[in-house]
Amino acid sequence: MEERKMRVAIYCRVGNKEQADEGVNNQKITIETYLNSKKEKCKREYYIDIGFSGMNFNRPAFKRMIEDVNNNCINTIYVKDLSRISRNVIDLLNFSEYKLKPKNVKLVSINENDDFLNIQKKIYRDFISKQKKMRRKCNGR
Q1: CA dihedral sign of residues 121, 58, 77, 32
Q2: Whole-number percent of the chain with pLDDT over 90
Q3: Greatest CA separation found in the chain?
């Protein structure tokens, strides 16, 4: 029986053309080094947007990547850091929750050194913990 290979998307984005060569190469090297260190057997597809803002999802390679997610062509998306996907935390959370989670696609950030689902859980736990501390503080008056 043939071993099923992981299908991964490597997403790189730079905001302006002056950053293109160095920025994209740096992102690629970081992600490739990580994948090679894990000795993951995977089919790698590159999605690269040059000169596009991280404030919205109106980017050609990003749209192509989402189409591949919708067509079940991707198991995992790797980025150097989460700001490559979005600079808006709410958009990033919605993207993960409503686009990736239903398709069981992981979003892995190399710099944050974790799967975004785990990062979401940490954010939620921190939020709940701070809420509890605030309630105790308010009730202690």
Answers
A1: negative
A2: 48
A3: 66
Task: Return the percentage of the chain with pLDDT > 70, whole number.
Answer: 77
DSSP label of 38? H
Sequence letter at residue 34:
Y
- The set of long-range contacts for 97-103, using a CB threshold of 8 Å and a minimum separation of 24, is 99/66, 99/69, 100/69, 103/69, 103/70, 103/72
Q: How far is CA 34 from CA 37, 38, 109, in A?
A: 5, 6, 10
DSSP-assigned beta bridge partners for residue 106? 76
Given a contact cutoff of 8 angstroms between Cβ atoms, the answer to whether 107 and 118 are in contact is: no
Q: Which residues pair with 44 in a beta bridge?
A: 8
Question: How large is the C-alpha radius of gyration of the chain?
Answer: 17
pLDDT 10s digits, 68-91: 999 999 999 999 988 899 988 888
Read off the tokens for 122: 């940490």
